[in-house]
Structure formats: C-alpha cells, structure tokens
C-alpha cells in the first residue's frame, strides 16, 4: 500500500511539472503584449519600458519560467497586475465561496443522482426510467446561464423569495448564506447530477446483471441483502470516480454560474484575469486547478483500493 | 438578517426625472442612522484598485468619484469646468502662468489639512513617476506653491484647456502630501471627498459618509457598491429592492423600462464616440469622393440600432449635444443613389474590396461592421470584416496595416481631446494619415485661444472640415443608461459617466 501511494505521488509530481510548463507557455503564447494592453492607447515609451521591467517581462522566457516556478514552490505566486496584491491572497479570498458552492452542488447532485439512477436501474424501460432519462437529458443540455437567469427572474423577481445573487460568509449570517446559496447550488447541482445519474444507472444495471448477484439470488438470499451487499458495492466504484471528477471541476470554479449569481469564486476570478490579461493571477489559478485535479484523482484512486482490494498490485 | 422585500410598487405617484434638476448643496444632515440609510448601487464589475493616479478602470472611478476631489470639476449640465478644491483661477496675459486659489477649511479623511503642498505633491507624483496621466501635463513646466492657499502652474505654451486637463476625471485627484509612502493606495483611499473608503472585497465596496466634508456631510450614511455582472440579475435586484441604483441594464430592455413605473430610467448621450476611419495611403480611400460616398451610404441609425439596441445617439461629429462644445452639423443623408454617383465621379471601377478591421475586445465594433458591410454592398463595395484580438488590432493600426477600422474614443471632455491628436498633420493618433493645412491652422489656433466662445468657433470650423473630408467617419455617441428606485432624489445622470452620490436622499 505504501509503495503504491509513493508511486502515485511520484506520478502526480511528474504530471504537475509538465502542467506548470504548459500553464506558463499557454499564458505567454496568447497573442498580444500585456503591457501594451494594460497601458491603453496613450503612453510614453518610458512608461512602457518601466512597466515591462517591473513585471519581469523583459527577461528571457526561460529565466522568467524558472523564476516563477521557484517562487511558486515556496508559495509565492507573484503579484496581480490588476490590483497589486499577492496572487495567493487574491486566490485565498475566493476560496470560501468556491468551497461552499462546490460541496453544496455535489450534495445536490448526489441527492438527485442516487435515487433517480437507482430507480431507473431497478425498472429499466419503465415510465419512471424514461422520465429520469428525460430529466437528466434536460439537465445536461440546458445552458446553465439560461437556467440561472430563469431562476433569478422567478425566485428573486416575480416571487421575491430569494436575493438575486451575491455571497455572505456562513460565519457572518447563516440565514443570508443559505438564501444566497440555494439557486447557484441548484443550477450546478442539476448539471452535475444529470451527468452522475447516467453513471449510477449504468453501473447499477451492470451490477444487477452480474453473475454473483444472480448466484446470490439463486441461493435465496433476501433481496435487500443482495442489493446492499453485492450491488451497491460494485456500483459505488464508478460513482466515486465520476463524483471525484465533478468535484474537481466544481472546485476550479463554475465560471458562468458565478457570473450570473455574482458569486465571488475562482471561476469569476479566472475570467477577470483573462479579461485584464492578469498573467500572474491566471497562472496561479490554473496551477491551483491542476493541483486540485491531481489531488482528487489521487484520493479517488486510494478510495478505490479501499473499496476493491483487487486493484492493489 | 436582511429580509427580502417583495417588489415595492411606487405608491408615490409619478415622480419627475431628476435628469434636469440641479444637485445643489444638501442641507439635510440629519441622517436616519443605522444601515437603512445606505444606498446600495449595483455596478457591473469590481474595481481593480483604488490608486486614482494609477488605475484606468471605470469601476474604480465609480467609487473614487465619491472619495476624492480634483481642483476643478466638469459641470453636470455642459461639462465646462467649475470650482471644486480650487475656488477660482486666472491665467496671465501671455497664457503661460495659471494661478489657482484654493478652498480653505478642507480636510482629508485622515484629518490632515488640505493646502497647496498637497496639490504640488499630487501633480508631481503623476509627472515624475510617468503615470498614466502624465501626458496631460505635457506643456507643464512647473507646479509651485506660492502660499498655502495658492498654486501656480507654469506652462511652456498657452494651454487654454489646462482646467479640463486637471479636472476631467478623478485620475487627477489630490492626495495628501506623502500619501504614497504613508498608505497602501491600491487598497486604501485618503481623499477630501464626501465619502470615505471603508472596505472592499470580491463582492462589494463600502463607503461611509465623511462628516467633515467641505461641501457639507452627505444626507445618506454610506454607499455600498455591489458587483452584479449579469445585467438581468442587476435589474431584478433593482426591481425587488435589493439595490436602489444601477448602471447595468440589459440594453434590449431599455425601451420597455421607459414605461415601467417600478424603476426610474434615465439616458443621456455620453462623451464617448465611435467612429470609422479609412487609410489615406491605401487607394482608393485616399480619394475624398470615395470617403464621402461611403459616408453617404452608411445609415447611422441602423448601425446604432444593431450595435447598441438603439441606446445611442447617431452623430456626424464627435461631441455630444450635452456639451458646451456641441456643434450641430450633419451633412450626410443616407442615399444609395448619391453614394453611387460619388463613386462614379471619383472614377472608381466597382466592385472594390475594403478590409474593415474590428476587435472582439469591443463586440459592438463587430456588430457595427457587419451592418456597415451590408450597407456598402449596394454601392459596389465588398467589405471584408476582419475580427482580430485587441493587441493585434493596435499593432496593425500603428503600422498602417489596414484599409479601414472601427473604434471609439472614451472619456473625452475638452474639444482638444476630441479633435487635436486625431486630425492634425502627423498627430500622435492620426493613424489615417489626414493632412489639411487649414485644419492644422484652426486646431493650433484653438489650442492657444483662451476665450471660450472664440475657441468654440475655431473648433466648429475645424470639425466642419474634418467631417466634410471624412478624416473620421463619425457614427454615434453611446448613451449613458442608469436606473434607480422611484423616490430616490438628488441624483443627476451625466454625460461623462461620473456618478456622484453626495446629494442623494433615499425614498
């Protein structure tokens, strides 16, 4: 187990090194001179040179890269072009909102997906299965910004039950926190939940049709016991994976939903950084997303080995 | 816990728009106390930072407008300069020495007294550190304190637009001496304005009333700027009472809102203008008849409708009608026949192709270009709309690598900003290559003319030639569009998009 863990961590480190090269190059391959864009149309050559020097953009790319990487390893991601604050503090400020929305959305998603997927799998082809399929098809295909705006118009506009958006920390006012969380969590939860529902359904069907379930039923074991012990355990495996992937995606910010609901998360930050060509923030954010994906993958793999010992080799 | 009020319908009856009522001094300093007397305004984006000399972002200026002061400010009615931190000013007969007399009994938010040293410090900071607005001091030789209440600015040549240069917007704010060393100006603000900057995060920025404000304490206790990027959400927040003011309105809903009693909607043509420009070095666009043909073929009303859902004022000159310098001149009547005749007169063999460079940085240029393309087709000009990223666009503009392009100039106040660098021979923004000795003479004369009426006359004459020659093909001034709750008083919409909440009273 320990060797397996070490090997996986080693692999992740290699991937991360690769990702950091790609992140850095991506940002520098984007057409356009950030200094020039930051200054607008009226500026002197002196001003231009000064800003280039200040932001280190006058050094060779290789030097820029190793400087950035070295500092990043010590937790120094540089300083935002836009606000002059450190990138770490800019990102840290956004974490509470992002974590809140990500976990709330996963809860909503699982609350939709597990019952819906299970019912579908138990009665394949039935009316209820068809309804579930339509619902998840709807969740996947309806644009989230449209769903968000409709919710705002109905619940904040016509009915006046909920605020139109924004974020209040839980520590400040739990009631206000919950009121503002409902709509964005619902939109992202429905989208993620629709994806997960299909996985639940297919893995359940597979587990139900497997030999050892039939054997267990033939032995005359009670259905409930068969279901919980044999079906669920097998069906859980793919569910862990897909939930992990969805969580990683949610943790890297859901740009559109954050914009619609004025939710101050990482997605909104990434978009602002792109618009303002705020390279340091953009690099820091993408690097963080990569780390989140790798860590979650690692956790998912470890959970796998815990659930299914055959994977340990 | 803040409860969500259902949509409050205005029972107060139809309230007249305040768009023409003056602000005036607020005398009601009672203030309700508590959080109920705070104006919540929905703005479209988060300020990038709060250093007025460094930022160039409008969301920052929306906040700074209420926190800092300049020596002079644009008047809300016609944008001419009026007193602010300076009570009056005069210029010597040779036009080279400007003397500003400063207001007394003004304090900064940290309690320090405002005097001439602060003005010298602020202006020299912009000049010495070559900050964004250093170009505004290009003719300034020195800024000196004669005594604590008097500042003298010496210029190398007569600069009649100096008040406009130092008062146009809050980028020329006065900071207390030594502020850059004493404070972190990116996150803190120390102004002389009606509100103090209390806090700012990723959701909102909060201001509190400054009781010792020289213009009298504001009647509200504070302002909360809440960032709501999605216009439909901002409008909903206004309609259900979460916010009392917004400038983020879905453009396609402006017309229907005009007849809605639940919100007060105000629009006015802004000081920004959008234009098309052709490259004189690329035939046949160097031929004035060809440019006039194109100017005659374009229907500005249709362009405005498509690019701005009609939320703009078509204009054949640069300056909007609210300005003292507005010049009512519109020689081009859209006509395919006349445009075709002009092209024939120029001896051009149609069809010809014209590349039209636009950028997705400003999506309205892309929409406008598509409309223009459809309008030029009937006269035998095939428009090739080239959408590039803004950096490429700027590079190609600088290298003269274009047949024609579309863009706008934003935040202009003085006619010098509108016409000088864009149309004088060899001007720093004259990318089209326009050169007309008569225009040069008029612009140079206007740049040193100190009498306002004579100055306007000179700019009118220059503008007429610029329009006739189609140096720029002017399209429209976009509207400033703002809305607030019925019963909110003491707010005035302005063409320069400055938002002042100091005299506001809540319903």
Summarize the structure.
Chain B: It comes from Blastococcus colisei. Chain A has 313 residues and is mainly alpha-helical.
Task: Describe it.
The complex is a heterodimer of chains A (313) and B (507). Chain A is mostly helical. Chain A has helices spanning 2-29, 34-39, 45-54, 61-73, 87-122, 127-141, 144-158, 174-208, 211-218, 223-251, 255-260, 266-275, 279-307. In chain A, helix 9 (211-218) packs antiparallel against helix 10. Chain A starts with a helix and ends in a 6-residue tail after the last helix. With 507 residues, chain B is an alpha+beta fold. The longest helix of chain B has 17 residues, at 452-468. In chain B, a hairpin with a 6-residue loop joins strand 2 and strand 3. Chain B is globular. Chain B contains 14 helices and 18 strands. The chains are: A mainly alpha (313), B alpha+beta (507). The interface between A and B is large, with 49 and 41 residues.
Shape of chain A from CA axes? globular
- Secondary-structure class of chain A: mainly alpha
* Structural classification of chain B: alpha+beta
Mean pLDDT of chain A: 83
The CA-CA distance between the termini of chain A, in Å, is 9 Å
Give the helix tally of chain A: 13
End-to-end distance of chain B:
21 Å
Beta-strand content bin of chain A: under 5%
Task: Determine the CATH topology of the largest domain in chain B.
Answer: Dipeptide-binding Protein, domain 3
Main β sheet profile of chain B = 12 strands, mixed
Q: CATH homologous superfamily of the largest domain in chain B? A: Dipeptide-binding Protein, Domain 3
Average residue pLDDT of chain B:
89
Mind sketching the topology for me?
The complex is a heterodimer of chains A (313) and B (507).
Chain A: H1 2-29, H2 34-39, H3 45-54, H4 61-73, H5 87-122, H6 127-141, H7 144-158, H8 174-208, H9 211-218, H10 223-251, H11 255-260, H12 266-275, H13 279-307
Helix pairs in contact in A: 1-13, 5-6, 5-8, 5-10, 5-13, 6-8, 7-8, 8-10, 9-10, 10-13, 12-13
Chain B: E1 38-43, H1 58-64, E2 72-74, E3 81-83, E4 86-91, E5 97-102, H2 116-128, E6 140-147, E7 150-155, H3 162-167, H4 179-182, E8 195-200, E9 204-209, E10 222-227, H5 231-239, E11 245-246, H6 254-258, E12 264-269, E13 273-278, H7 288-297, H8 300-308, E14 312-314, H9 336-345, E15 352-359, H10 363-376, E16 381-388, H11 390-399, E17 404-409, H12 415-423, H13 437-448, H14 452-468, E18 473-484
Helix pairs in contact in B: 7-9, 8-10, 12-13, 12-14, 13-14
